[in-house]
Automatic annotation (TrEMBL):
Entire protein: shown range: 458 to 742 of 742
GO molecular function terms listed in the Swiss-Prot or TrEMBL record: cyclic-guanylate-specific phosphodiesterase activity
Organism annotation: Marinobacterium stanieri
Record keywords, A-Z: Phosphoprotein
Segments forming domain EAL: 24-277
Name of the featured protein: EAL domain, c-di-GMP-specific phosphodiesterase class I (Or its enzymatically inactive variant)
A single BP term in Gene Ontology: phosphorelay signal transduction system
Transmembrane parts of this sequence: none
Length: 285
């Protein structure tokens, strides 16, 4: 064979790509054993009333620290778990930890709702709903203390298969929040009968509030839609006072973000709940 042809054939060999395939496999092995050992934990981020500054609840976010002490971001392990068929197992472990946290909040006399994140793959999994409802009933927790977050893009991609299940959860009094709202270009036809209680304005819009006319426009539109169709609204990723003020001026009810608090370990969040349960966060500013 001529050198030229070999050269061409070897152009398909990409050591970088092979290395990343191997890396992914290693991480996947670690993920599997982390699930077996229930090595995931929760970080809890407060949700705050933007009018009163009162603590209104928490969102539970999955955290993973591997044996060598390095932490892997959900932006990496969630998609990995999704493609490997492991996301439902992960999400059910997060649900159990969430139910546990709610029980601890009740026990210390600060009963507040806690939201957990889900993937549509959970709702497409035939046994998920049954397991979910069984565990919720076994916990004895009142449904209004639970809120399920699911991203707009995922809901819209599988609207026919998921809408009914979300509607059932709503009927049972469980909150349904549409996460990262504004990024998925929901059709208006769907928004009007979206089985949800809350829209969460995606942080990309909140971050550009006051800087980009377009982002400000999107936020205003979501707030109008919510008022018109009776959704609660949470603004995600509030980092500055200016963003807070712009949201307050437009009547946005609820918010989350580093300005108030970063996601924190469970013990810290329980203490946070005790400190802020009956006071306004704004008084401390
Ligand atoms: P999300 O549900 O939209 O969560 C918000 C993300 O924004 C979190 O990132 C949070 O730490 C971060 N964040 C909160 N406030 C601020 C802020 O002021 N500024 C900035 N820059 N970021 C802020 P995290 O924890 O890395 O989670 C990323 C995504 O991974 C989540 O987005 C959610 O979609 C997914 N995820 C997390 N835990 C789970 C889980 O248990 N199950 C599933 N299926 N997905 C999860
Ligand atoms: Mg979320
Ligand atoms: Mg979000
Ligand atoms: Mg997100």
């Amino acid at each position: 064979a001529s050198a030229a042809r070999d050269g061409k054939r070897f152009a398909f060999y990409n050591p970088g790509q092979e290395q990343s395939v191997r890396k992914r496999q290693t991480l996947l092995d670690k993920l599997k054993s982390a699930l077996e050992n229930q090595a995931f934990s929760l970080a809890l981020q407060p949700k705050v009333c933007l009018k009163s500054g009162q603590l209104k609840g928490f969102e539970a976010l999955a955290r993973w620290t591997t044996d060598d002490g390095s932490s892997v971001s959900p932006g990496v392990f969630v998609p990995l778990a999704e493609t490997a068929g492991l996301i439902t197992e992960l999400d059910l472990q997060v649900l159990d930890m969430t139910l546990d946290v709610i029980q601890q909040l009740i026990a210390q006399d600060t009963p507040l709702p806690v939201a957990f994140n889900t993937s549509t793959l959970d709702l497409l999994n035939t046994s998920y709903m049954e397991v979910l409802l069984t565990r919720i009933e076994q916990s004895g927790i009142e449904h209004h203390l639970l809120d399920m977050e699911i991203t707009e893009t995922q809901v819209m991609e599988e609207y026919e298969q998921t809408a009914e299940q979300l509607a059932l959860l709503r009927q049972l009094g469980i909150g349904i929040s549409i996460d990262d709202f504004g990024t998925g270009y929901s059709s208006l036809a769907h928004i009007t009968d979206l089985p949800a209680s809350t829209l969460k304005i995606d942080q990309t819009f909140v971050r550009r509030l006051g800087e980009s006319e377009e982002a400000t426009h999107v936020v205003e539109m979501i707030l109008r839609l919510s008022e018109r169709f009776g959704f609660d609204v949470v603004a995600e990723g509030i980092e500055t006072r200016q963003q807070l003020q712009l949201l307050q001026a437009r009547g946005c009810q609820l918010g989350q973000g580093y300005l108030f608090a970063r996601p924190m370990p469970v013990a810290e969040a329980l203490q946070w709940a005790q400190e802020h349960h009956r006071t306004s966060l704004f008084q401390h500013n």
